[in-house]
């Protein structure tokens, strides 16, 4: 077999797996190319790709049944009842650990962030997960351009369904931001509780990634407590963020919430 044939075989194997078949193909192909440099046999390379995807996508954090959730969204918007719409959004947010942890502070979380940044005309939600479903609590107008990026394709379809129903432009896109940094200029970019995993999977890329974003404000958050051990992470991630921004003339405001710390960095004055 040729290397190109091996590559196609590895991609096909991942695309046929139940857990990772809905991953953006460009991500799978990039990981497969790297794996085949270390493993001669496609079967070994596919195993290595699955291991990387487990770390990158964190499927253990949870997802809703997207078909069921989509039907619930359609029914809620058809009813015209805002509380029904909010409940479907809450249910979706609850299905993923990261946004579930934020639910008790959701409205206050965004109120404090946008009090610093101002109301954005364009917002980038990077490695968004299900966070765009928090839109009812963000206090943003429907005129906002909300651009969301993720590599899980059913999640992107679900978010665009919500955006359409909400009257927002369907600007969620399947894009691997580690391979292609977002090129859109914007007022605010949010990257919520993802930087530790990003830096673990792409060591040394965090500084370049933040520097490349063409935004006025960066909003980077970290968990304050370890999910597994209950260990306090504030000191660790405060030092980590300092390392990511050392030498940058970016005024930073730190916000502390129950379970989450946020750094709002102003890139351009």
Would you kindly provide a written description of the structure presented here, covering whatever features stand out?
The chain is of the alpha/beta class. It has eleven helices and seven strands. It has helices at residues 3-15, 25-36, 42-57, 66-79, 82-94, 97-102, 106-117, 153-166, 195-201, 206-212, 234-245; strands at residues 122-125, 145-150, 172-174, 186-192, 215-223, 252-257, 260-266. Strands 3-2-1-4-5-7-6 form a seven-stranded mixed beta sheet. β6 (252-257) and β7 (260-266) form a beta hairpin. The model has no long low-confidence stretch (mean pLDDT 91).
What share of residues are in beta strands? 15-25%
Mean pLDDT: 91
Amino- and carboxy-terminal Cα gap: 56 Å
Strand numbers in spatial order across the main sheet: 3-2-1-4-5-7-6
Major beta-sheet overview: 7 strands, mixed
Q: Could you name the CATH homologous superfamily of the largest domain?
A: Vaccinia Virus protein VP39
CATH class (first level) name of the largest domain: Alpha Beta
CATH architecture of the largest domain: 3-Layer(aba) Sandwich
How much helicity do the residues have?
40-55%
Per the CATH scheme, the topology name of the largest domain is Rossmann fold
**Element order, helices and strands?**
HHHHHHHEEHEEHHEHEE
């Amino acid at each position: 077999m040729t290397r190109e044939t091996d590559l196609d075989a590895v991609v096909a194997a991942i695309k046929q797996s139940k857990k990772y078949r809905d991953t953006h193909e460009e991500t799978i192909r990039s990981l497969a190319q790297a794996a085949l440099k270390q493993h001669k046999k496609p079967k070994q390379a596919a195993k290595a790709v699955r291991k990387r995807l487990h770390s990158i996508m964190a499927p253990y954090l949870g997802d809703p049944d997207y078909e069921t959730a989509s039907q619930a969204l359609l029914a809620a918007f058809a009813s015209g009842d805002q509380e029904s719409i909010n409940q479907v959004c809450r249910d979706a947010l609850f299905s993923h650990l990261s946004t579930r942890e934020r639910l008790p502070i959701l409205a206050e979380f965004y109120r404090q962030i946008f009090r610093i940044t101002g109301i954005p005309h364009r917002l980038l939600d990077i490695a968004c997960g299900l966070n765009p479903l928090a839109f009812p609590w963000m206090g943003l107008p429907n005129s906002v351009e909300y651009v969301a990026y993720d590599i899980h394709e059913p999640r992107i379809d679900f978010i665009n369904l919500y955006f359409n129903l909400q009257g927002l432009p369907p600007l969620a896109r399947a894009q691997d931001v580690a391979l292609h940094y977002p090129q859109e200029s914007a007022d605010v970019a949010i990257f919520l509780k993802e930087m530790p995993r990003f830096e673990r999977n792409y060591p040394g890329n965090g500084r370049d990634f933040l520097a490349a974003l063409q935004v006025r404000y960066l909003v980077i958050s970290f968990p304050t407590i370890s999910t597994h051990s209950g260990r306090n992470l504030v000191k660790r991630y405060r030092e980590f963020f300092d390392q990511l921004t050392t030498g940058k003339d970016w005024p930073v405001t730190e916000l502390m919430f129950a379970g989450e710390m946020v750094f709002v960095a102003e890139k351009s004055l």
